Amino acid sequence: MIKFDCIGRLGNKGKTWQGYISKLVYFGSHMEISIHLDEPVTADVCKTLSGFFVYFSNFETGVNLPSLFGIDENAGRLACMFRDKDAVTVAHAIGKVGNLLSTPRRGRREPKPMGETLFGELPF
Question: Where are the domains of the chain?
Fold first, then answer.
């Protein structure tokens, strides 16, 4: 379980609370996050040409995000699906593990060429 701090404005007051990610699966091209709210929410996050896309299978909808780390902007975009506190919690959760998708994976090594015979052909 991953624990993270959430800071947000709820109403006229700034508040702080704890958020939790219970499951994180990184597939290389995208990741699946299970976030604890009143009811657990699963978010699939993937990188796109214009930024990032987050799909919520519980709600059968998704949202485009220009960055994974812009908490205030992401919370505003997520507010169409969640209450204010839950939108801020989801935005913080995505930002907490966003570095997995924002940095490219280490590339694979090129295979070494096989030795050639005297006539430039492979030995088989």
Answer: 2-102
